[in-house]
Each structure stands twice: as C-alpha cells, then as structure tokens.
Design goal:
mainly alpha
C-alpha cells in the first residue's frame, strides 16, 4: 500500500500570497544617481582659479587701486570717454548708411554698380584701419585744396583741405569708410535672408520698389542684421582706440598721456579697461532690447526680460516669506469656526 506524503503537488501559489518579483520589473530596480566626478573636479578647479584671481586683484599692490579710484571718474577721462562715444556714434550712423547703399548696389542688376560696390568692399576690407586713418590724416599732402566745379573742367569754388577736414573729421571719415565695407556685407546678408516671395507678393500688389525695401524688406532683414551689426558696433567702439596715432584725445590716448607722466601704467590701463567694459555692456543691453523689438513678428510670446525675471523672483521670495510667517490655525479652531 502506497504511503501518503505531506508534500503538495506543484501548482499556483495560494491565494493572497505575494508573487515573486520579476527580474526585469522597473519597480524592483534600484535607482542610482549618476555621479559626474569629472564635472565636479572641473567645477572645483574653476572655483579655485577664480578665487585665486580675485585674491590677487585684492591683495597685489601692483594694481594700485587708490590710483584707479583717483582717475576713473576724473574730468580728463570722462571727456575722453565722450570723444570715444562721439567717434563711435558718427562712424556707426554714417557707416551703416553708406553700407546700406553699397549693399543694394551689389544686389542691383547693373554690372557697373555691382563692380563699383564689390571693388570698394574689397579695397577697404583689405587695408588695415590704422593705415586708412593715417592716410586720411595726411590728405592735405595729396590734395592741398578741395573744390567744386565741372568734372575735368574749371573749378568754381575751392578751400584749403586742412581747414575743411580737421583731425576729428579725418578720423570720422576713416572710421566711416572702413565701417561701411563691413556694414555692406552685413546688410546684404540680411536682405538675402528675406524670402523672395515677399517681394513677389509686394510687386503683385503694385507697391513701389522703394517702399518694398523700406516697409517690407528691411524690417524683416533686421532680425538677421542686428546680431552681427551689434557685434560690429562693439568692435568699432574698441577700434576707436586706433585713432591715438592721430593724437585725438579719446580714452586710450588720454590714458597713455597720463601714465606717460606719472608712470602708473597698470592702474591707468585698468581705468581704460573698466570704461570699455561698461560701454560695451551698455551696448549689449541696447542690442538685446532692439533685437527683442524686431522679433515680435516671428515670436508672439517672447521670453521675459532679465528685469522681469528678477522682479518675479523677488515676488516669489516675498510670497514664500509671507506664508512662512502666517500663523497656523489649529484644526479644532477650524471646526469651531464652522
């Protein structure tokens, strides 16, 4: 007779018993955060370098911060900054006006206009700015008098070139002609970025060519023009330091004159550096808001400005502080109120 055993035959688990874990079940996997050791080491090295540089700025006596404080807002330096801003403004406005004309000359169907514009851009981009400035400064050696009259004929009115083109005028002419060559390519690139269908639609509506350029092409091209143009204007602001060869009292020239007298080279160079940083920062802020304005047609909901983000952050901190100091009402008191 066969004996019975207590061992149950293999089968499904009893009701209510937990099922064995599945090896590939995501719920049973242990999540381990990624550890970026190389990133931590790089960040620590950068922090150490920045701290070391800051410590050197504060403790190295060669910087002579007291000399920097004495000259950074002095009347001579402020007047030199004003001359730098004037040169930048004149060269920017006149250079981009001439550059726009050259850009449309290159885009025209006239081979004469195309050739003249291309030759101008080729020549003025090939010659260094300092050479152009020295050339215009010595214009009187080439043309002692400038006049008006019939081409290849008699001259009705003439004037001494030195009396009509002074030192500042020669600097503005040199900077403008140099800037126009680069501005022409910037404007031409922006115009080429506009869809050709825009001009075809404007022509089909009977809009005059000049109005097409002024009201349709240029507003759309500004989105492509502004980033490069802003960069070029900032470069022009720093490039005005080249006019020191003409003995014009701009920022870098005045700094050279001062440290040539007192021998404080490092703090005076730091004065020029601080002013250039401030001016380029202001130009960068202006460029940001101008680009934001011309981006309204393509971006219906532009991101908030840094000022708005700062205000939102301050409001968030105030709201969190107000909630933290708000008295807590016990649950029993809430029941009594009900």
């Amino acid at each position: 007779m066969a004996s019975t055993t207590d061992t149950a035959p293999p089968g499904p688990a009893a009701a209510g018993a937990p099922a064995p874990p599945v090896p590939d079940d995501p719920a049973t996997l242990k999540v381990v955060p990624a550890r970026h050791y190389a990133r931590w080491v790089a960040a620590a090295a950068v922090v150490v370098l920045v701290a070391q540089f800051t410590h050197g700025l504060a403790t190295n006596p060669v910087w002579e911060w007291h000399v920097f404080r004495d000259y950074v807002l002095s009347e001579t330096i402020v007047r030199a900054v004003w001359v730098t801003l004037q040169l930048t403004a004149y060269a920017t406005v006149l250079g981009f006006l001439l550059g726009t004309v050259l850009a449309f000359m290159r885009l025209s169907r006239s081979p004469v206009l195309q050739t003249v514009a291309w030759t101008y851009i080729w020549i003025f981009r090939s010659i260094p700015m300092i050479v152009q400035l020295v050339f215009w400064f010595n214009l009187s050696a080439l043309y002692d008098r400038l006049g008006l009259g019939i081409p290849f004929g008699p001259v009705f009115w003439s004037v001494d070139s030195n009396s009509i083109i002074g030192t500042i005028g020669a600097a503005v002419i040199g900077l403008t002609l140099h800037q126009a060559a680069y501005a022409a390519e910037i404007v031409r690139g922006g115009v080429l970025a506009v869809d050709e269908g825009q001009l075809e639609a404007a022509a089909a509506l009977g809009i005059p060519r000049l109005r097409q350029i002024r009201r349709i092409v240029l507003p759309q091209a500004m989105r492509a023009i502004l980033p490069t143009a802003g960069n070029e204007i900032i470069g022009l602001l720093k490039g005005t330091s080249v006019v020191y060869v003409m003995s014009i009292g701009e920022l870098f020239y005045q700094v050279q004159v001062i440290y040539g007298r007192n021998g404080r080279v490092i703090p005076l160079l730091l004065v020029a550096t601080a002013w250039y940083v401030v001016l380029t920062s202001l130009l960068s802020v202006a460029q940001y808001y101008v680009e934001r304005r011309y981006a309204r047609g393509a971006d219906r909901t532009p991101p908030p400005t840094p000022l708005r983000r700062a205000r939102r952050f301050v409001r968030t901190l105030r709201t969190a502080a107000a909630q933290r100091h708000r008295p807590v009402v016990p649950i029993k008191a809430l029941g009594d109120i009900r």
